[in-house]
Amino acid sequence: MYTYKSFETIGAFTLLRPIFISILVVSLLLFFIIIFPKLKNKMVNGFTVLSLSAMSIFVSGQLLYNSGIIVDEIGLSGDPVSFYIFLAITGIGIINLILYFSTQGKPKK
User: What is the reported pLDDT for 40?
Assistant: First the structure.
């Protein structure tokens, strides 16, 4: 009705999906940096992991909420893929925090 055809796929509002995917890629990149000890010691500290994880969860949550408002206003259906990507971002963000702070106090071998 009020949208361009590229904003929807099979009746679902998919305009914001690339932003979700970008946040997921950043979360996965942080995950791989935490896994490899050489990269972890050079590139990240606790504040970085905490702030990136919290911000990615917060921003993707706000994005999902706002996409729900947009979908309601223009009469489309929600994007289930974006919801699953949000769940993945939340899970990876929590795993990043647990991984970093659980391996932080261990001595190097």
Answer: 76
pLDDT tens digits along 40-65: 778 788 898 999 999 999 999 999 99
Vertex 59: Cα angle to 46 and 24 (nearest 5): 75
Residue ranges of domains in the chain: 17-103
Q: Contact, 72 vs 3, CB < 8 A?
A: no
pLDDT digits (tens, 9 = 90+) for 73-95: 877 777 888 999 999 999 999 99
Give the whole-angstrom CA distance, residue 69 versus residue 75: 10
